[in-house]
Amino acid sequence: MSQYLDLVWLANRRLSKPPKSAFSRRVVRHGQLVVPFTLDLRFAQSQNAYRRATPRQRYVRRKLLLEQMSWQILRWMMQDEWLALPLHLRQYPLPGRPQVNAVRFATRMTDGYANFAKEAIDCLQPSRGIDRGHGLKIISGDAPHQIEENQWCELVSRDAEMFVYLEVRSDV
């Protein structure tokens, strides 16, 4: 649990400073933090790598990702920050149009349209199709009229911790 919360703190600390690369495109984070996630880089593959994987590999990776995200949301629900949220922000799916931000802290930048957080954002919504019943149901869907989605990369040094920080915010 401490590593998860340490990475959440580290991500917010890094985002409070100016980016190391002039090419990092940061967005204005607005609203109240509802739930943060920290994910392994193995769950942040580009769409090119995702398409090359077999259906079995995708299924196994999604199952592991859901396990990690479920574990983290349970840990977050024990924190004072979550308990201090208004009641309507603790009921899922979130009302309104929440902001979903994904930041990839790594030594290499991805291209602008890598869509590295697609699988994680898919896990945030109710499941459809084969995986029915296996979504976190935090957001109602990932269409542009349902969420404001932002993904960007931040460069870190080779000896720094590399991970993906995913946060869901709401200002309703």
Name the features.
single chain, 172 residues, alpha+beta, four-stranded mixed beta sheet, 5 helices, 31% helix, globular
Topology diagram in text:
Elements: H1 2-16, E1 32-39, H2 47-52, H3 55-76, H4 80-83, E2 99-106, H5 118-124, E3 148-155, E4 163-170
Parallel strand pairs: 2-3
Antiparallel strand pairs: 1-4, 2-4
Strand segment count? 4
* Number of alpha- plus pi-helical segments: 5
Structural class: alpha+beta
| Low-pLDDT residue intervals, each spanning 5 or more residues | none
Structural shape: globular
What Rg do the Cα atoms give?
A: 16 Å
Order of helices and strands: HEHHHEHEE
Number of domains: 1
Average pLDDT score: 89
Q: What portion of residues belong to β-strands?
A: 15-25%
- Cα(first) to Cα(last) distance is 29 Å
* Helical amount: 25-40%
Looking across the biggest beta sheet, what order are the strands in?
1-4-2-3
Q: Mind summarizing the main beta sheet?
A: 4 strands, mixed
